[in-house]
Write a structure and sequence with these properties.
The chain is an alpha/beta fold. The protein is built from 17 helices and 20 strands.
Length: about 450
């Protein structure tokens, strides 16, 4: 549910001294988030300008169609624009360590995020989901659960629709995926329930170290809502706070939500109650059982019906580019996990297999220590095909623990994999790296993989 503009202005004034009369807002970055912020500020009658380091941001034509008179500074960050700004709304893709931003903050400019604006604009419950991997799956799962339980849910954030663009929906609750970049600049989120699914090395090109990265993730628990804790992850387990309602989940031991054998059948459990057989979850990999338990815990925390949630899980087909089965060709299964843009996601994918797989990996490692991949690859991969900017780093980290092959592009990686694979094998694209060194995004990378795989049929 969205509250009226007067109440929103009062909340912004109270929390950020932000109002239409006295504030000069600079929106930094004109991507999807920046455009959503621009629409939001325009509706509230708050003056703002846009700046972007790119000469022609991809959404600038769309922006000028609806806001032709708004000042826009492109081709670098304009010092004059920063100098007069009372508030900066910095898109997640822009680092807060940019010199212009650091200087503006030192001179008194306040940082406000799109998630702050969102939190000041709703009175329906917010469920906030973050983690190094699995957050898109859990966010989508929970959205489907809410729908199956008869609730109107706005689902988005870092995934799909920007948070502020959800405000026009008559939502009874909001399910938001949040990245570490969104959380590091958010100060008034008070989610009704929140989770950090896991923490592994990611975005260390932007965060000083994994401790700082985990600290940003922990911001999702700000406020007094229910904390949903993965007790299998020691970093997350240590985030528990006294005097908070806490629900735990685990695929390794007893918790509030866990896995147990009843006879010959494994069940997803809530306390002593069998919720559904694990085999009825139509997703590959044991890490998806953890995702399902996290979604169930979040749903229970806000009162969703457990039977309805389990029905949603039984029909959940997963996300494109996330453990997506592309084809079975001549007895070989090809799986697209291009969304595995960090080490933790790749490790989780590998750990979900009983048999060893042929792994295609590589891209931009984003400053991560690729040695953390080695134990999982040694245990779960029969061979590895490497490509992209940091292929050499990964090869060095693996230190010949498995056979390694080099590929110039995805088509070649698929051809090499096909020559190695035997009946019963799985070939897994799970890059453990970002895609922008060679592709438009991880979706483009996954599409190129699928295209090359389907080309084998010819």
């Amino acid at each position: 549910m969205k509250i009226d503009n007067v109440a929103i202005i009062n909340s912004l004034r109270k929390n950020f001294a932000l109002d239409p009369q006295n504030s000069k807002v600079l929106v930094v970055g004109l991507g999807n988030t920046g455009l959503s912020v621009a629409h939001y500020l325009q509706k509230l009658g708050i003056n703002f300008a846009i700046t972007d380091s790119r000469d022609k941001p991809p959404l600038i034509d769309e922006f000028f169609q609806v806001m032709p008179d708004t000042p826009v500074f492109t081709g670098g960050f304009d010092e004059a624009a920063f100098k007069v700004a009372t508030h900066l709304i910095v898109s997640p893709g822009v680092s807060l360590t940019e010199k212009s931003i650091v200087k503006a903050i030192a001179n008194g400019s306040k940082i406000v995020s799109d998630i702050d604006l969102f939190a000041c604009s709703v009175d329906a419950p917010i469920i906030a989901i973050t983690g190094s991997n699995g957050k898109s799956t859990v966010t989508t799962m929970l959205g489907e659960m809410a729908k199956c339980a008869g609730k109107k849910a706005g689902v988005g954030g870092n995934l799909g629709t920007p948070a502020l663009d959800l405000l026009d929906q008559a939502a009874e609750l909001y399910v938001l995926e949040l990245s570490s970049f969104q959380l590091e600049r958010t100060s008034v989120l008070n989610a009704a329930a929140a989770t950090v699914l896991n923490v592994s090395a990611d975005h260390l090109d932007r965060h000083a170290d994994i401790a700082k990265y985990a600290q940003e993730k922990q911001n999702v628990f700000s406020g007094n809502g229910v904390m949903v804790i993965n007790v299998d992850d020691p970093i997350v387990d240590a985030m528990q706070e006294e005097d908070r309602r806490i629900l735990t989940f685990s695929i390794k031991k007893d918790a509030d939500f866990y896995i147990a054998n009843k006879g010959d059948v494994e069940y997803l459990m809530h306390n002593k109650q069998c919720l559904m057989p694990l085999a009825e979850l139509p997703l590959e990999g044991r890490h998806n059982a953890a995702n399902a338990l996290a979604a169930l815990a979040l749903g229970v925390s806000i009162g969703l019906d457990e039977h309805a949630m389990c029905n949603a899980l039984k029909t959940f087909k997963g996300l494109d580019h996330r453990m997506q089965r592309v084809a079975e060709i001549r007895g070989v299964t090809w799986v697209n996990d291009s969304k595995a843009t960090n080490i933790g996601a790749c490790v989780a994918a590998l750990q979900g297999y009983e048999r060893k797989v042929i792994l295609i990996a590589g891209g931009d490692a984003k400053g991560a220590d690729m040695k953390e991949l080695t134990p999982a690859i040694k245990e779960k991969a029969k061979s590895v095909i490497l490509m992209g900017k940091d292929a050499g780093l990964i090869k060095q980290a693996l230190n010949n623990c498995v056979p390694v092959y080099a590929a110039e592009n995805m088509a070649q990686a698929v051809q090499i994999s096909a020559s190695l694979a035997r009946v019963g094998d799985s070939v897994l694209l799970s890059p453990a790296c970002a895609s922008l060194d060679q592709y438009k995004n991880y979706q483009d990378r996954g599409d190129q993989f699928s295209k090359a795989v389907l080309g084998l049929l010819a």
